[in-house]
Amino acid sequence: MSDLAQPNETDPRPMPTSQPVLLRALRWGLVVTAGLIAAFAVIGFLVSGQPGLWGGMIGTALGGLFLMMTVGSIAFANRFIERDFYITAFFGIVLGSWVFKFIVFIVAVVLLRDAEWLDTRVLFFGVIASVFASLVLDVVVISRSRIPIISERSRP
């Protein structure tokens, strides 16, 4: 089994050595978010019935989506590393995803604030749980990764 942090010399499009770590965090983020959605659907239903079910599902999905968008945008922006406009594209993509998340968050708050069909307390705790789980997941993935100190570009 090959080390995912090592660059693949046969790959026509070289990526930073952090790319496999970002993709691993994204994959595990999807798995953890799916598990949290299922868990909070059950917890929410037990706490307050159908409104709790929707609150738990929407809260954990929003939290997971927002946190995975940052990792996903960085991984996507790394595809432009060989281009002259890489720095501009990188920050444009990452900051653009942050602006998009901010707009989606404001719209979600406005639309869901007075919704009678969901329990906003369960929604809140779902968001908090997904943020906490994502932070723990990122720490575990990054602490177990092996990224070389010297990048491919600085090798002789």
List keywords for this structure.
3 helices; mainly alpha; 156 residues; disordered N terminus; 71% helix
CA-based shape: elongated
Structural class estimated from helices and strands: mainly alpha
> How many independent structural domains?
1
> Helix fraction?
over 70%
Radius of gyration: 19 Å
Q: Poorly predicted ranges (pLDDT <50, ≥5 residues)?
A: 1-5
Largest sheet: none
What percentage of amino acids are in beta strands? Answer: under 5%
Q: Please tally the helical runs, counting DSSP H or I stretches of 4 or more residues.
A: 3
- Annotation, overall tally of beta strands: 0
Distance between the termini: 27 Å
Question: What's the rounded overall pLDDT mean?
Answer: 86
Report the order of strands and helices.
Answer: HHH
Overview of this structure, please?
It comes from Leucobacter chromiiresistens. This is 3-oxoacyl-ACP reductase. The chain crosses the membrane at residues 25-47, 53-77, 89-111, 123-143. Keywords: Membrane, Transmembrane, Transmembrane helix. It is a single chain. The protein has 156 residues and is an all-alpha fold. The chain has one domain (19-146). It is built from 3 helices and no strands. It has helices spanning 19-77, 86-112, 120-143. The longest helix is centred in the N-terminal third of the chain and has 59 residues, at 19-77. It is elongated, with a radius of gyration of 19 Å. It starts with 18 loop residues before the first helix and ends in a 13-residue tail after the last helix.
Summary, kept brief:
With 156 residues, this protein is mostly helical.
